[in-house]
Write a structure and sequence with these properties.
The protein has 418 residues and is an alpha/beta fold. It contains 17 helices and 13 strands. The strands form two sheets. It has a seven-stranded parallel β-sheet, with helices on both faces. A six-stranded parallel β-sheet has the order 10-9-8-11-12-13, sandwiched between helices. Helix 8 (159-165) runs antiparallel to helix 9 (174-197), helix 11 (252-273) crosses helix 15 (366-377) and helix 14 crosses helix 16 (380-398). The protein is globular. It starts with 7 loop residues before the first strand and ends with a helix.
Length: 418
């Protein structure tokens, strides 16, 4: 029997990168898996072509047969420029009210025709990574034209929940409140429309899947975040306890969580452990506020790190102090794979089925978080117990080989049915 070859058009807003931040790693994971099924044409936004063009040639090694970089500015950006260009107060307000939300990255009918010609085909599968990419793809291939027979959108997480959880300005103006309500309504409507129109919707946790089903009436399929499990360096025991946070600081929940920890938890830990406690902040694109912490009260800011394995090797305890955002945190799975003890808020380990006291320590207020940090620092045996249990649990659910194999079977079956 001849092996089925699936020709895929993958639309992605992020640059697939197995060593990047969480969404970039998930994009790379999908690209590699799709490439095992057949040729993949990858569509990327204009900003990647402008700011990260040096990385595009390397995408062939990740599985892209062809890369197409879009030439147009995002639809919301065009409207935003028009909004700022006017001096008329009434017109400025009207353009603010009618400006497209950030996720509404559709193209007009003429551009859609141009892209369909440029993209060629035919394709067996249209795979969009995250909501914004699906909006773009949906405008290029509306229901009125021939589109790939199988369409899959990986939302990764639920954007409407992220929108609600992420902190906005403390006291938004009345106009801003109106715009936020409008954007949230549009976001939920778009999630519902895509779920009903596309062949399948993917999310990264059962918890988000249940929420999405209640919101849209469509049951999504679960594809968890995943990492590679391999040889692990044992924890280094020394006179100092090394605490570690890993995450992209361009993502507001990470900066907010670290700020909370440094302000309300870390002083208590240092008061108890003194110079025997040190904190490393390793994250992409550290902000000024994060960079200013370097060298203060035992804190070291590394910024972008080429090899996270070295950072984990030096760590004793990984912290995940998150209070906003949605989806599952790949940093928790990664820390478990590296066999390091983890202290997290409830939200930080949401959707991973990790049990408090068995796989992980969970703390949601400064006193509890500080107590857990101090007790773990003084108890290497408990750190080892938690780390091993978390690793075994994570390996059973979040191995990249198993997750890819499961998704590969699903896609092959879906395309065959068409």
């Amino acid at each position: 029997m001849t092996e089925q070859i699936i020709r895929t058009l993958m639309v992605c807003r992020e640059l697939p990168d197995p060593n990047g931040v969480g969404v970039e790693r998930r994009a790379a994971q999908h690209l590699g898996m799709l490439a095992t099924l057949g040729p993949v044409t990858l569509v990327l936004p204009k900003w990647i072509g402008m700011s990260r063009s040096d990385r595009i040639p390397g995408l062939s090694a990740l599985g892209a047969s062809k890369v197409i970089v879009r030439g147009e500015a995002p639809h919301p950006e065009v409207l935003r420029q028009k909004h700022h260009a006017t001096n008329s107060r009434p017109l400025r307000m009207w353009r603010a009210l009618t400006r497209a939300p950030e996720f509404d990255d559709r193209v007009n009918k003429q551009l859609a025709r141009d892209y369909r010609q440029r993209l060629g085909g035919p394709y067996d599968l249209l795979f969009a990574f995250r909501l914004t990419s699906a909006v773009w793809a949906d405008s290029v291939y509306p229901t009125s034209v021939a589109r790939p027979p199988t369409t899959i959108v990986d939302l990764d997480d639920i954007e409407s929940i992220t929108f609600c959880n992420n902190p906005s300005e403390p006291t938004p103006s009345r106009l801003r409140r109106i715009l936020l309500r409008r954007d949230l309504f549009a976001l939920k409507s778009t999630e519902r429309r895509l779920a009903q129109r596309w062949s399948a919707t993917l999310l990264c946790s059962a918890l988000d899947a249940d929420r999405f089903f209640k919101s849209t009436g469509v049951r999504p399929r679960i594809v968890p975040n995943a990492v590679r499990f391999g040889t692990v360096e044992p924890e280094q025991l020394g006179p100092k306890t090394q605490f570690l946070f890993v995450g992209a600081f361009g993502y507001a929940p990470n900066e907010h969580g670290v700020g909370w920890f440094v302000e309300k938890v870390w002083p208590v830990v240092r008061a108890s452990l003194g110079d025997h406690a040190e904190l490393t902040l390793a994250g992409y694109r550290p902000t000024r506020a994060i960079s200013a912490l370097d060298g203060v009260n035992g804190i070291r800011v590394l910024g972008d790190v080429a090899d996270l394995a070295e950072v984990y090797t030096a760590a004793n305890i990984v912290i995940v102090p998150l209070f906003s955002g949605s989806g599952t945190r790949i940093k928790v799975i990664e820390a478990a794979a590296m066999q390091r003890a983890i202290i997290s808020t409830t939200l930080g380990c949401e959707g991973l089925d990790m049990a408090a006291g068995k796989h992980i320590e969970i703390a949601n207020d400064p006193a509890t978080f500080a107590t857990a940090a101090i007790e773990l620092a003084n108890n290497p045996a408990r750190r080892k117990m938690l780390a091993l249990a978390a690793c075994q649990h994570a390996k059973s659910l979040f191995s990249i080989e198993q997750v890819n194999a499961d998704l590969q079977k699903r896609i092959t079956a879906m395309v065959a049915e068409k």
